[in-house]
Amino acid sequence: MLDPSRRGKLWALHYTRATTEKPYPLELTNFPANADFHPLGIELVPSDPTGVSRLLVINHRRQNTTIEVFRIQLDPHSVMLAHETTLTHPSFVAPNAIAAISPTEFFLSHDHYFTRRKVDLVSFNAYPGAGVHNVQTIARNIAFANGVAISADGSTLAIASTTRAKIQLYSKNKTGVKFVSSVRVPFSVDNIAFAGDQLLAAGHPYLPEFMALVKRKSNRAPSYVSAIAPRQAGLGDSWLTRMSAGANVTTTFMSDGSFLGTSSGAFVDMKTGTMFVVALYGSGVAKCDYGM
Question: At which positions is Ca(2+) bound (predicted)?
Fold first, then answer.
């Protein structure tokens, strides 16, 4: 980056299905004044036994990459983040995306060649000074490991492989993970997120146009979001078991870049039926009605 001393920001947006307020930057209370802040992946952590919710943020500092842990404080009209601790570990070399599985565990993907494009399982303590307890590599040699997500029933770990335009699916249990199958999508997939029984995947359908934008030879690049779901509906079987019987891949959002370009992620508010699509290069967020 040209000026690493210039801090990045986290933003909040209040909305209903019919209305959207103006987004605003969040104040990071108790965060060290002299520390770099360049956020990439973020993840909400399941509430701990005391009811406290936290936000994990991948922070690409100049000296090293860290995971910042913030306590979330909510009221009807504002969001506040209080910094609790900074997690560091020698394995945090090129983290890209993060997915929490408990108040003290998360999966972390690494996307650079020298990391062997791996995914780690990280155990930590959220209290200041406690740090990381354990790091275990659970998947290796993934072609540009990018977004990670966990199904609502906990049966499935999904990992996006950007250069292979597919999502790899792993069975997940208390003893580890095991590769089961993969699903191909019609674009270079970036980030992924579960929305009920569907897995949303966002990415870049035409890399030459995307690279032209990155090199400032173009002013836009297209967006694409797909929804992946088991063909087999019903209760009782896990999401991954039903996926083994076949998957439906449907288009939920497309743009040539004039409306919203370089889609890097999509997620759904299930209560309101609202989908948001965010851009990798751009200042806008698309808000859409979402039909399950």
Answer: 42, 96, 146, 190-191
